[in-house]
Design goal:
two-stranded parallel ribbon, alpha+beta, single chain, HpyO/CreE_NAD-binding, FAD/NAD-bd_sf
Length: 51
């Protein structure tokens, strides 16, 4: 099993983690973040384009 460390749980770290989950190879993924919250800075839309 490969071990992978992701430094930072911002948008790029979260998107990278998601992409790795699509991989069929078994992985051990650790995410390291110094902030109290994860995914800070991810764009969130309260409404969809259709309303």
């Amino acid at each position: 099993m490969k071990k992978i460390a992701i430094i930072g749980a911002g948008p790029t770290g979260i998107y990278t983690f998601h992409a790795l989950l699509q991989n069929a190879v078994p992985l051990a993924v650790s995410i390291y973040e110094q902030a109290d919250r994860q995914a800070s800075g991810c764009p969130i839309a309260r409404k969809t384009p259709r309303g």
